[in-house]
Amino acid sequence: MKRTRTGQAFWDQEYTKGGHLALSLNPSEDLEKFVRWLVREHGREHLNVTTSILDLGCGNGRNIEWLSRSYGVRGTGYDISTEAIKDASRRATQDGLPLTYVSRSIAGPIDLPDESQSLVLDMMSSHFLNKEERSLLITETARVLRPGGFLFYKTFLLDEDRHAARMIAANPGEETQTYIHPKIGVAEYVPREEDIEEAYSPHFIIHKVLKSHRHKGAQAKRRSISVYMEKA
């Protein structure tokens, strides 16, 4: 695939014609698991009609929409795909949900006030950013979270993932631990657990880490990690 058909163009096609994603309107099971944990630990403190949530790379809005329907939260979703944002905005308007969607990259400053969010979701999104952009996103996420607010972070994990290691070796990107995705044509970063701890610990307290099973080299199987973090 030529590099000219990447980024927004690729994802717009995914949300109109499909092919790479298994599109769904159901929430992520990993998000549901995180929310159950959050409610056990803190009740509805972070999930109620007075709280606001930011979803970085919201896609068709399925996760933030589920949170709004289930807990009455307000929220904002960012996604690079204009088609995904159109779909999410249409449902929010139709159903009267207090959600705002913006078609934009998650790179760069976040257009929200300091300490205005109770929860931020970064689910399989920021691995498309380069090192400088990821660093800024972490700082901006901490800035917009209120004291004691939470970040739910999910990404690919390099530890014990032979398929990821092969992809890095076969088609490396400019940055260490990156590869050029063979279908999308953009660089993806794959951190180790220690990289995540080093990047986030200056701003967040890590409460829980969940890792998917190891994959012994199976094609298309990827290992992931979910991290529950509280603003320090």
The overall number of domains is: 1
Overall pLDDT level: 91
What does the largest sheet look like?
7 strands, mixed
Topology-level CATH name: Rossmann fold
The number of helical segments is: 7
Spell out the CATH superfamily.
Vaccinia Virus protein VP39
Q: Round the Cα radius of gyration to an integer and report it.
A: 17 Å
**Structural class category:** alpha/beta
CATH architecture field: 3-Layer(aba) Sandwich
Q: Outline, from the CA principal axes? A: globular
Order of neighbouring strands in the sheet with most strands: 3-2-1-4-5-9-8
What is the beta-strand fraction? 15-25%
What is the CATH C level class, in words?
Alpha Beta
Helix content: 25-40%
Describe this structure in words.
With 232 residues, the protein is of the alpha/beta class. It has a single domain, classed as 3-Layer(aba) Sandwich (Rossmann fold). Helix content is 34%, strand content 25%. The protein contains 7 helices and 9 strands. It has helices at residues 7-16, 29-42, 62-71, 82-95, 131-144, 162-170, 193-200, and strands at residues 52-56, 74-79, 99-103, 117-123, 145-156, 178-180, 187-189, 204-211, 224-231. The strands form 2 sheets. The protein has a 7-stranded mixed sheet with strand order 3-2-1-4-5-9-8, sandwiched between helices. It has a two-stranded antiparallel ribbon with strand order 6-7. Helix 3 links the parallel strand 1 and strand 2. The termini are far apart. Mean pLDDT is 91; it is low at 1-6.
